Amino acid sequence: MRLPAIVQQLARPLPLGPVELMANAAFHRVLHRHVRLFERLGEHGSRTFAFVPVDLPFAFVVVPVRRRIAVLRPDRLPRTDVRIGGAIATLLALAEGRLDGDAEFFARGVSVDGDMEAALALRNAMDDCRIDLATDLAPDGPLRRPVEALLQTLRSAALSGAVR
Asked: Which helix (H) or strand (E) holds 90?
């Protein structure tokens, strides 16, 4: 479920600033729709989580209590409490609960290092929220339906393995 090589190549020169702005806009939109997402983390809300897609030149660092995503180059990641790696489509599908996290972990489709209790708390919190990125990220107004349909199509293609 890796991104096509051409997409990976096109992403390499992208500056971090605009990527971080887009990531935070998406993150805040999801948080707005799922306001209780991080409440279940309890003491783990102050942990640092790194999401490291193996098919993008970016890593995403989240401290839930700060409600912000930092975008860094993977080779410049600071020490984090939890590090979760895998193809971006896999990571997003796990966030939506569309893939079995245990199966992906044991099949080596995803790697998890660090504080496993915090990682499990995050997984449980996300499962409870029933995130649907196509619905959550589609804008309000007249473009909602076409954008949502496009995002659903992209998700289906990625999950079916059509995007490699």
From this structure: helix 88-96
- Is residue 130 left, alpha or beta, with left meaning phi > 0 and alpha meaning psi from -120 to 50? left
What 3-state DSSP class applies to 124?
helix
Tell me the C-alpha distance between 29 and 74, whole Å: 25
pLDDT in tens, 67-86: 999 999 999 999 999 999 99
**The domain at 5-159 falls in which architecture?**
2-Layer Sandwich (3.30)
Q: Convert the pLDDT of each residue in 30-62 to its tens digit.
A: 999 998 888 889 999 999 999 999 999 999 999
How many Cβ atoms from other residues are within 10 Å of residue 108's Cβ?
8
Euclidean distance between CA atoms 12 and 57, whole angstroms: 6
Query: Which of helix, strand or coil describes residue 88?
Result: helix
Q: Which helix (H) or strand (E) holds 121?
A: helix 116-129
Distance CA 24, CA 32 (A): 12
Beta partners for residue 49, in sequence order: 62, 82
Q: The whole model's pTM is what?
A: 0.90
Question: Locate tokens 């504080």: which residue?
Answer: 115
What's the number of CA atoms in the CB half-sphere (13 Å) around residue 102?
A: 2
Domain ranges of the chain: 5-159
Neighbours of 24 (CB within 10 A): 16
